[in-house]
Each structure stands twice: as structure tokens, then as C-alpha cells.
UniProtKB/TrEMBL annotation:
Listed name of the protein: YARHG domain-containing protein
Higher taxonomy: Bacteria, Pseudomonadati, Bacteroidota, Bacteroidia, Bacteroidales
Tree of life domain: Bacteria
SMART domains found in the cross-reference section: YARHG
Species for this entry: Tannerella forsythia (Bacteroides forsythus)
Signal peptide residues on this chain, from the entry's feature table: 1-19
InterPro entries: YARHG_dom, YARHG_sf
A Pfam family that the UniProt record links to this protein: YARHG
Transmembrane regions listed in the UniProt entry: none
Domain YARHG: 288-370
Entry keywords, A to Z: Signal
Length: 376
């Protein structure tokens, strides 16, 4: 794996023009066929001295790839954990990138009719290992079908389907992986209203890094995120300097004081500060019923779904069916949804009523439920 410092934007001079690009080349052996035009390129960075040059083959030499590459050009893609940048290669589109901590992740897409087929990709490792060929860094296997499509006003998503036509991975464009990770924590981990046994209320807002309940005067406070391995985690640093780790449970939150030790670059948890119980979720819903309305609005990534507990995921998955009026065999599920004013049971099988977004999310949720079970 290579460090994130090697895949930050560097300055390129292409045929007399200057442009920012995100690319990890550090070796004169870096494989060809990875830049959008056939030019001699001078890399200017600490890692790649300006006296190194390479000439690359390009998409213009691969007609089958040229048109399809436009679908990905200029975009970063993420599954909530890693980012990937597309570059045309010999007969396929290569995606390489990594996390905020390190690089070395890749996969490839081979154009086929109105979809793609998943294949291995390459990533520069170091001068001794210039190419990691055949590596698939997302959930899927070689030959899996990949679709890139617009879902209403939600946006464009990349979805991987296995041989049984079951969705296994979702990616979406991102301008900033750090911002995406922080937004996912704000929206899917923190957002909600919570109350302690003594009546103290905590409100984490769903659309901004702001919380109410920590200040003695009752006013809301802004916060930033603590980082572990250079990646935002569920640690908030309030505008008054106090810091807390926020852990989610089925019923609420466990809030602990924590301290950062810069000499060791780590956070240490202290005493429990509060254990408020959830009063309600705060998700932007429009006119969608339920606690988890977003499952009807957009395909969910693994990175987003990882913020929910095993029990939340079970309720989330079955809420998709409940919105279509499904009757449940499990007594606890039937009781749970009968307590919802919007629930109107009408059928034992609503599978034909599901949208493609809902079908994708049901399978993605099942995947994360399985991970929870395996980690018990």
C-alpha cells in the first residue's frame, strides 16, 4: 500500500498547459494508457522530480473505451470508504485510488452493450512493484455486471450485480472523500433527538455539524471531527474545546469524554458523560413515511449503512416492505409496524411493488447485517 501523500493532487504540464490532476505516479515504470490525451507529461512534485517524463497511450487509441469513458471523466467515485479515479486503459476503464490514509486500491470496468463487466485494475505500488494488476478493491468478482445510471433527482450511481443479479456494491460521485465521510456520520450516525433519564435533551442536526445539549445555557454548538488514521471518526470536538466519542446503540447514544494525545496521535476514552435514549430520528424525508425514509430515495453505500446497528438494519430493511403494506410473520415486526400511524397491511408479498432503489437497498442492508453477525 502507498501512503495518501502520494496520491494528492500534483501539478501536471501537458503540451504546454498546466492542470491539476490526482494521480500517484512515482516511478518511470508507471504503466501507460492512463491519461486522457497522448502527450509527454512532466510531473512536478516532491515525490516525482520534474526531470522525469513519460509518454502515455490514451483513450484515442481505444475506440471501444473512448466514448464510455466520458461517463466517468472528471469524477471521483466512492463507496463511503475509498475514492476511485477513472482513467482509460487498453480495452477497459481503470479505477485507482485509496482511503484518506493510504492508497493501493483499484478495479476495472470493461464496456459491454449498455453496462460494464467488473475486472481487475492496476495501481502503482512502488518502483519495485509498479503495477498491481488484477486487483478488485470493491465488493464484487470478475465478470459481475456493473450499471451506471441516474436515479431521478438523486444523482448518478454505480451498482455492482453478482451472477445471481444481487446488488453487492454501490458507489457515487464525490468531490471530497473527507467531506463525504463527515456528512455520512452527521446524517446516518448522529442525527436525532435524544433524552437522558433526568430530562436532559441532546439534538444532533441532520444537515450540519451542530449539536444542542452540551452547553449549560442550552444553546447549540458547532463541532469538528476527530481523526484516526487520518480519517474522520465519531469523535466530536466542540467549539469550546471539549471532545467526546459518540457511540450508537439500538436505543440511543453512549457519549464518552475523550482526550487526544498528539505525541502518540491517538484518542483515549475517558468516563461516560451521558447515555441518552432516542426520542426520534431526524432524517430529511419529504413525504416518505417511516424512520428510514432515505431507503426509498437513493441507493445506499456500505459506508453509509455501516453507521447503523444490527437491529436498526433489520428494522430498516423490513420498513421498505412495510411501506408497501406487507404483513409480517414475525410477531415483533408486526407489532413494531402496527404502532406506526402510516402502516396499512394489505399483502403477504409485495416484492413486485419494490422500486429498483428499494431492491438495491434491501440487498445492501442484508450484506451489512451479515457483517455484523460475523463480527459478533
Amino acid at each position: 500500500m502507498i501512503k495518501r501523500s502520494l496520491i494528492t493532487p500534483i501539478l501536471l504540464t501537458v503540451a504546454g498547459l498546466q492542470a491539476d490532476a490526482t494521480s500517484p505516479p512515482t516511478s518511470p515504470d508507471f504503466p501507460p494508457a492512463c491519461l486522457p490525451t497522448e502527450k509527454t507529461v512532466v510531473f512536478l512534485s516532491e515525490e516525482a522530480p520534474s526531470d522525469r517524463t513519460w509518454t502515455y497511450r490514451t483513450s484515442s487509441q481505444y475506440p471501444a473505451v473512448k466514448q464510455r469513458f466520458r461517463e466517468f471523466e472528471g469524477k471521483q467515485w466512492t463507496n463511503g470508504f475509498d475514492f476511485f479515479i477513472a482513467m482509460p486503459a487498453d480495452g477497459y476503464i481503470n479505477f485507482s485510488g485509496g482511503s484518506l490514509h493510504e492508497g493501493g486500491s483499484s478495479f476495472g470496468l470493461t464496456p459491454e452493450d449498455d453496462h460494464y463487466r467488473l475486472r481487475g485494475g492496476f495501481f502503482v505500488i512502488d518502483e519495485d512493484t509498479p503495477e498491481g494488476d488484477g486487483y478488485i478493491a470493491i465488493n464484487g468478482s470478475a465478470g459481475d455486471r456493473v450499471e451506471v445510471r441516474q436515479f431521478g433527482e438523486t444523482g448518478v450511481f454505480m451498482t455492482v450485480y453478482n451472477a445471481k443479479d444481487i446488488p453487492t456494491e454501490v458507489l457515487h460521485p464525490t468531490n471530497d472523500l473527507r467531506e463525504t465521510i463527515e456528512t455520512d456520520i452527521v446524517t446516518y450516525c448522529f442525527a436525532g433527538e435524544y433524552r437522558t433519564e433526568d430530562g436532559r435533551t441532546f439534538t444532533f442536526f441532520p444537515d450540519r455539524k451542530e449539536v444542542k445539549g452540551f452547553a449549560e445555557d442550552g444553546k447549540s454548538q458547532s463541532y469538528t471531527f476527530g481523526n484516526e488514521y487520518e480519517t474522520p471518526v465519531n469523535i466530536i470536538i466542540l467549539d469550546d474545546g471539549r471532545s467526546f466519542r459518540i457511540e450508537k446503540s439500538d436505543d440511543g447514544l453512549l457519549i464518552r469524554k475523550c482526550t487526544y494525545y498528539s505525541s502518540e496521535d491517538l484518542w483515549t476514552d475517558g468516563n461516560t458523560y451521558a447515555t441518552p435514549q432516542r426520542i426520534r430520528y431526524l432524517f430529511e424525508a419529504g413525504n416518505i413515511s417511516g424512520d428510514f425514509p432515505f431507503t426509498a430515495l437513493q441507493p445506499m453505500t456500505c459506508g453509509q449503512l455501516e453507521h447503523f446497528t444490527r437491529n436498526e438494519l433489520r428494522l430498516m430493511r423490513n420498513e421498505i416492505y412495510a411501506r408497501h403494506g406487507m404483513r409480517f410473520r414475525s410477531a415483533d415486526l408486526q407489532k413494531h409496524f402496527e404502532a406506526k400511524a402510516w402502516y396499512a397491511p394489505t399483502s403477504d408479498d409485495v416484492s413486485k411493488q419494490l422500486s429498483e432503489i428499494e431492491r438495491i437497498n434491501i440487498e445492501m442492508i442484508r450484506q451489512i447485517e451479515k457483517r455484523h453477525d460475523e463480527n459478533r
